[in-house]
Design a protein that fits this description.
Helix content: 10-25%
Strand order of the largest sheet: 2-1-3-4
Structural class: alpha+beta
Order of helices and strands: EHEHHEEEE
Distance between the termini: 26 Å
Strand content: 5-15%
CATH superfamily: Glutaredoxin
CATH class: Alpha Beta
Largest sheet: 4 strands, mixed
Shape: elongated
């Protein structure tokens, strides 16, 4: 089972989804802007990634600056509440597999948690070659 919290408007998210597909897996795709995880689900994802809540906050293209979220006054609970109100603040893509849960930035970070190997060459949208013709990481 592979699940991706995906934003189709994000190149990193599209590349991550394509790498998952290149391994022959059809993941469960959660369009998290339309169907955000619950606060409890998000807490579990963050806990499973073993990263601080602040590391899941997306700054670019969000109300991060407007809400002054760089200010240390915000508790983790308050930040989670704000991510529930503004799901665009949740950084993406987050991928869950049987091996682990990971914020896949850069997109090739997903390779660390995929069970199945890559089936062929893969080049990111920006032209960067990530997987060679033998299915091996470059």
């Amino acid at each position: 089972m592979v699940k991706i919290f995906h934003n189709p408007n994000c190149g990193t998210s599209r590349n991550t989804l394509a790498l998952i597909s290149n391994s022959g897996v059809e993941p469960e795709v959660v369009l998290y802007l339309e169907t955000p995880p619950s606060k409890e689900q998000l807490k579990k994802l963050i806990s499973d990634m073993s990263i601080p809540v602040r590391d899941v906050l997306r700054q670019k293209g969000t109300p991060y600056e407007e809400l002054d979220l760089g200010n240390a006054k915000w508790s983790d609970e308050e930040l989670l509440d704000l991510m529930m109100v503004h799901p665009i603040l949740i950084n993406r893509p987050i991928v869950v597999t049987s091996i682990g849960t990971k914020l896949c930035r850069p997109s090739e970070a997903v390779l660390d948690i995929l069970v199945e190997p890559q089936r062929g060459a893969f080049t990111k949208e920006d032209g960067e070659v990530v997987i060679n013709e033998k299915g091996l990481r470059v």
